[in-house]
């Protein structure tokens, strides 16, 4: 393990100045908590599948239910998590709700993170 410049277990004055400069440039904790919650929303295979389904355009809930072959309450739960995280837009037409991606670029980011490109 690399020891601190002071030879002890704490950073020296130069290291502290550098560290304070670095810390001042990173986002505040509330922002990071919010973004972590958004990332958690993508941490489920069913939700990832919904995102991939919607890359091909808007889908009705009935189409999403059929594609996922899961019960309606389960699909609704996953859609709500993605909606709250800001990944989905929705509109109501009669009794049906149609979903689409709020930002189609999300798929490029996912592909990059997952090593698909």
Key traits:
117 residues, mainly alpha, Arc Repressor Mutant, subunit A, 6 helices, 3 strands, 56% helix, 12% strand
What's the topology here?
Layout: H1 13-25, H2 29-41, H3 45-54, E1 59-60, H4 61-68, H5 72-84, E2 88-93, E3 96-101, H6 106-114
Antiparallel strand pairs: 1-3, 2-3
Give structural notes.
With 117 residues, this protein is mainly alpha-helical. The chain has a domain at 42-114: Winged helix-like DNA-binding domain superfamily/Winged helix DNA-binding domain (Arc Repressor Mutant, subunit A), CATH 1.10.10. 56% of the residues lie in helices and 12% in strands. It contains six helices and three strands; from the N terminus they run αααβααββα. It has a three-stranded antiparallel beta sheet. Strand 2 and strand 3 form a beta hairpin. The radius of gyration is 21 Å and the shape is elongated. The model has no long low-confidence stretch (mean pLDDT 90).
Overview in brief:
The protein has helices spanning 13-25, 29-41, 45-54, 61-68, 72-84, 106-114; strands at residues 59-60, 88-93, 96-101. The chain is mainly α and 117 residues long.
């Amino acid at each position: 393990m690399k020891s601190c410049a002071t030879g002890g277990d704490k950073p020296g004055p130069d290291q502290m100045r550098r560290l304070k400069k670095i810390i001042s440039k990173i986002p505040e904790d509330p922002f990071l908590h919010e973004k972590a919650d958004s990332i958690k929303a993508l941490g489920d295979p069913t939700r990832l599948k919904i995102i991939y389904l919607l890359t091909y355009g808007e889908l009705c809930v009935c189409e999403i239910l059929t594609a996922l072959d899961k019960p309606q309450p389960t699909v609704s739960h996953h859609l709500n998590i993605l909606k709250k995280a800001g990944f989905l837009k929705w509109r109501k037409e009669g009794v049906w709700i149609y979903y689409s991606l709020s930002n189609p670029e999300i798929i490029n980011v996912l592909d990059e993170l997952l090593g698909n490109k």
